[in-house]
């Protein structure tokens, strides 16, 4: 069986999704990145290998998410795609008449406006992480509530408190103030959810025409409190796909499937051997001019595979030359 | 006297050319080091936090020039509705506080611009028409040459088979033209480099999307300020179109505006249904460019420095025009991460390609 793998390496979680030729999801894995993207890619790949149906083989691989370039080099990706396009494609696959995609991830949040099956506009948070999952993660820790239980608490709220959500620092002091006043934890938690949604609608979604059907995806969609607050904030029903946390990876897989079919390319996927490979990352400051760019490099078994971060392209070029010599 | 100036696009090539013909010796002209992270750090350190990016970068250039011994500094001033009007005054004070007592020679970019150029040259070297006019002409010939080459570079990047080739030729062209001694050599070099760019191996299957770049002129034209925006767009296979250029500014501001020819007439007229007046800087023209080019471009990238009032006005008017052209607004300051810009650009290019594909599908159906 021919299969296609999408790998979404985000700031907080790593997702892998394997689809078959009928674009059906046949295996997936969801891991916390924990600041170790390469290890998580290897762990994820190991799990996928176990869950693959016998006789199936990977014919195309795409990466997405903030570590898409790193993941692309490690795995040998056929396609490296930004997370906005990946999410849009997956949403349209799941809900063909979708008009608005709300995606809230660990570090960034997006809105994608779709009309007649074409993306017409998008927005992404720019300066502040107050509208994202990390914000909730942080506040949950402060309230001593597990993030997984957050949504349940929020749904129990009857009298949500108003919390200033424009900035994480202010939200936190406001929340402590509300705690000291004796408000119930449930009401504070739902107040936080509302603050996050308010922030999202006033920043990321500002000036965008939000029409139903609205699809809500990304890890934060696990949180029933946010779903409820979005419903109320948008005054429309917001649908959460069953694989909402995998949508980026599914979108990447769908895109690479199409690419393979249209272009007839053969996959560059390096195979499951890379689970055993030893990858090292390191960085240094160039120092050749006052820009002093920070160069990051990736090596496999001691051999440099790629470098990033230079302004002038000097270091990337060195790689090309090294590769042509060897 | 040791004269210096802030960097802006390729203006160092032009100023060097004019200065040489005016008889300013190499020791008297301090060319500031290329704008780098160090320049930005210096500018940020000594600027008010809320000042805009062009202020911070030009201050950084001037500090670096003063460190090299400059005592006379050229800077722009204006009477428009934009902070540029007080750049020189505030920078003079900041440099004074740092212990550099440099003299500022300011150039008014709002009115009497040709007269301003000659009075600037007079201030530097005393008036001499027989020397000044050919000097100005020589500087302008280099400016026009570089902008002609730049346009070919923007088109070549989108279709070249091996990425980076056009950039290398462009870099070489700037250096060669900078070294050219006379007008004939400038002409010869222009032909040579345009020829080399045209013979770069092209990908026959490339179908570049056509994206216009507009917004605040400094951030549009200074690659350090916009994080090599046009180069990054080129890597994504985008053909970059741009109305703004230094040579166009010079051609119209110095010579054709005084004759009553307004290069922005059509663009401003296009903006009229949505914005009826100048809002400072390039805000009016940004709105106009969206409307005016809505059929010609596939998309528009609108750039501005953070806190730039004119462009904030423009950014908020753009979505409401009935002319339908996707716009990506990018705001630049010292906090902006390059990866964020690239992610947005990639998504924007995808959006435009999907749009084109669905439009073509539509046309095919209606054609049957």
Large-scale geometry of chain A: globular
> Can you count the helices of chain B?
15
**Broad structural category of chain B:** alpha/beta
Any low-confidence stretches of chain A, pLDDT <50, length ≥5?
Answer: none
Counting structural domains of chain B, the number is 3
Q: What strand order characterises the main sheet of chain B?
A: 5-4-6-7
Strand order of the largest sheet of chain A: 3-2-1-4-5
Distance between the termini of chain B: 74 Å
Largest sheet of chain B: 4 strands, parallel
Poorly predicted sequence stretches spanning 5 or more consecutive residues of chain B:
none
Oligomer: heterodimer
Radius of gyration of chain A: 21 Å
Largest interface: A-B, 25 and 26 residues
Round the Cα radius of gyration of chain B to an integer and report it: 21 Å
For this structure, the CATH topology of the largest domain in chain A is Nucleotidyltransferase, domain 5
- Report the structural category of chain A: alpha/beta
What is the CATH first-level class name of the largest domain in chain A?
A: Alpha Beta
Q: Kindly report the CATH topology of the largest domain in chain B.
A: Rossmann fold
Please describe the topology of this protein.
The complex is a heterodimer of chains A (326) and B (368).
Chain A: E1 2-9, E2 13-20, E3 25-32, H1 37-51, E4 57-64, H2 68-75, E5 79-80, H3 83-94, E6 100-104, E7 109-115, E8 118-124, H4 133-143, H5 150-155, H6 168-180, H7 185-202, E9 214-217, H8 224-234, E10 238-239, H9 247-263, E11 279-285, E12 294-300, E13 303-308, H10 314-325
Parallel strand pairs in A: 1-4, 4-5, 6-9, 9-10
Antiparallel strand pairs in A: 1-2, 2-3, 6-7, 7-8, 11-12, 12-13
Chain B: E1 3-4, H1 11-22, H2 37-46, H3 53-67, E2 72-77, H4 84-97, E3 103-108, H5 113-125, H6 129-159, H7 165-179, H8 183-198, E4 209-215, H9 217-221, H10 229-235, E5 238-241, H11 246-256, H12 265-271, H13 283-292, E6 299-305, H14 309-317, E7 327-332, H15 338-367
Parallel strand pairs in B: 1-2, 2-3, 4-5, 4-6, 6-7
């Amino acid at each position: 069986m021919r299969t296609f793998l999408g790998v979404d390496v985000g700031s907080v979680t790593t997702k892998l999704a394997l689809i078959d030729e009928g674009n059906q999801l046949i295996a997936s894995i969801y891991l916390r990145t924990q600041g170790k993207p390469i290890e998580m890619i290897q762990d994820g790949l190991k799990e996928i290998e176990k869950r693959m149906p016998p006789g199936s083989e990977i014919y195309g691989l795409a990466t997405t998410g903030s570590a898409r370039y790193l993941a692309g080099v490690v795995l040998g990706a056929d396609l490296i795609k930004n997370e906005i396009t990946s999410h849009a494609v997956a949403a349209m696959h799941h809900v063909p008449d979708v008009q608005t995609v709300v995606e809230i991830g660990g570090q960034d949040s997006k809105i994608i406006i779709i009309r007649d099956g074409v993306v017409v506009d998008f927005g992404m948070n720019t300066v502040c992480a107050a509208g994202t999952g990390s914000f909730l993660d942080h506040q949950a820790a402060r309230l001593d509530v597990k993030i997984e239980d957050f949504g349940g608490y929020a749904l129990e709220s009857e009298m949500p408190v108003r919390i200033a959500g424009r900035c994480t620092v202010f939200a936190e002091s406001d929340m402590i103030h509300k705690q000291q006043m004796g408000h119930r934890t449930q009401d504070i938690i739902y107040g936080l959810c509302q603050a996050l949604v308010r922030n999202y609608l006033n920043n990321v979604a500002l000036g965008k025409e939000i029409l139903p059907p609205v699809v809500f995806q990304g890890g934060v969609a696990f949180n029933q409190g946010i779903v409820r607050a979005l419903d109320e904030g948008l005054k429309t029903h917001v649908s959460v796909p069953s694989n909402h946390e995998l949508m980026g990876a599914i979108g990447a897989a769908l895109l690479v499937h199409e690419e393979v079919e249209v272009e007839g390319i053969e996959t560059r996927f390096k195979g499951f051997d890379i689970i055993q490979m030893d990858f090292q990352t390191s960085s240094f400051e160039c120092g050749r001019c006052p820009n002093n760019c920070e160069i990051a490099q990736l090596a496999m078994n001691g051999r440099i595979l790629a470098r990033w971060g230079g302004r002038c392209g000097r270091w990337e070029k060195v790689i090309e030359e090294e590769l042509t010599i060897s | 006297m040791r004269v210096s100036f802030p960097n802006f696009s390729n203006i160092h090539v032009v100023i060097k050319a004019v200065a040489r013909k005016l008889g300013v010796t190499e020791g008297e002209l301090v060319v500031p080091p290329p704008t780098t992270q160090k320049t930005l750090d210096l500018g940020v350190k000594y600027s008010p936090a809320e000042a805009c990016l062009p202020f911070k970068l030009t201050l950084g250039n001037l500090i670096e020039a003063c460190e090299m011994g400059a005592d006379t500094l050229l800077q722009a001033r204006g009477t428009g509705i934009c902070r540029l009007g007080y750049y020189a005054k505030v920078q003079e004070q900041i440099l004074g506080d740092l212990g550099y007592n440099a003299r500022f020679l300011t150039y008014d970019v709002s009115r009497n611009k040709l007269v301003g150029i000659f009075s600037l040259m007079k201030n530097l070297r005393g008036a001499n028409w027989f020397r000044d006019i050919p000097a100005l002409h020589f500087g302008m010939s280099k400016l026009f040459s570089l902008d002609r080459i730049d346009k070919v570079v923007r088109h070549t990047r989108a279709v070249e088979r091996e990425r980076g080739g056009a950039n290398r030729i462009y870099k070489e062209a700037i250096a060669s033209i900078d070294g050219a001694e006379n007008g004939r050599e400038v002409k010869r070099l222009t032909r040579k480099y345009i020829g080399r760019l045209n013979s770069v191996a092209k990908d026959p299957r490339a179908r570049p999307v056509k994206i216009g770049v507009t917004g605040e002129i400094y951030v549009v034209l200074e690659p350090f300020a916009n994080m090599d925006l046009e180069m990054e767009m080129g890597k994504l296979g985008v053909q970059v179109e741009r109305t703004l250029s230094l040579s166009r500014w010079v051609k119209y501001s110095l010579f054709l505006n005084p004759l009553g020819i307004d290069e922005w007439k059509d663009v401003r007229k296009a903006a009229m249904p949505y914005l009826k007046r100048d809002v400072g800087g390039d805000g009016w023209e940004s709105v106009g460019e969206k409307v005016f080019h809505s059929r010609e471009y596939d998309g528009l990238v609108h750039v501005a420095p953070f806190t730039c009032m004119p462009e904030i006005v423009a950014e908020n008017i753009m979505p409401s025009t009935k002319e339908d052209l996707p716009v990506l607004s990018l705001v630049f300051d010292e906090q902006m991460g390059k990866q964020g810009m690239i992610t947005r650009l990639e998504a924007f290019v995808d959006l435009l390609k999907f749009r084109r594909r669905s439009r073509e599908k539509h046309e095919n159906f209606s054609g049957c």
